[in-house]
Write a structure and sequence with these properties.
Helix content is 52%, strand content 2%. By secondary structure, it is mainly α. A two-stranded parallel ribbon has the order 1-2. The relative contact order is 0.20.
Length: 176
């Protein structure tokens, strides 16, 4: 049985502000991720149907960690204890602890998104990342906030496509 997931509303087609366009589409994709995962059973959230072994719940945790890494650790230069928390080892698939639930990951995701929104609201698009997690020396070029937001946008767009496939394989649900 195939059923349709109702799409969220995209930002208005009349937007001309790069800030409003980027932040609007990031929120659109954040909401889309949540809609794609809602209603999946715990087994399907943890199950992988592809050779690389990632699960929808693992991908969800990855997106939360991406928000944390790029905005808090990279852009703001904050100390983050485990910026790569979605990996047991960096060459393996995304990892979710057996005791972590969808509700746990959703809360973590929403916290990271809220923190990202606050960071963006307090900055200018041309501001440069503070440290990029300590990987870029202070005298080297660091990405601007607009570059980081665009990078996050493409990360979400790509992974929403992955979730489209994972959800259809799991229970037949399709939609935007």
């Amino acid at each position: 049985m195939v059923y349709k997931i109702e799409p969220a509303a995209e930002p208005p087609v009349t937007l001309t502000s790069p800030y409003d366009l980027l932040t609007g589409y990031l929120d659109f994709y954040r909401e889309t991720v949540l809609r794609k995962l809602e209603g999946m059973s715990d087994a399907e959230l943890r199950n992988s149907r592809i050779p690389t072994g990632w699960s929808p719940l693992g991908l969800f945790k990855h997106l939360a960690c991406v928000e944390l890494r790029w905005m808090q650790w990279g852009f703001k230069g904050e100390h983050i204890e485990e910026p790569w928390a979605e990996f047991k080892n960096r060459s393996g698939p995304w990892h979710v602890e057996p005791g972590e639930t969808f509700a746990d990951v959703k809360e973590f995701f929403q916290e990271q998104c809220a923190r990202s929104r606050a960071i963006v609201a307090a900055a200018r698009l041309e501001d440069q990342a503070a440290s990029l997690g300590g990987k870029v020396p202070a005298d080297e070029d660091r990405p601007t906030l607009i570059w980081i937001l665009f990078h996050l946008l493409q990360e979400y767009a790509r992974h929403v496509g992955h979730l489209d496939i994972a959800r259809e394989l799991a229970d037949g649900a399709v939609g935007e």
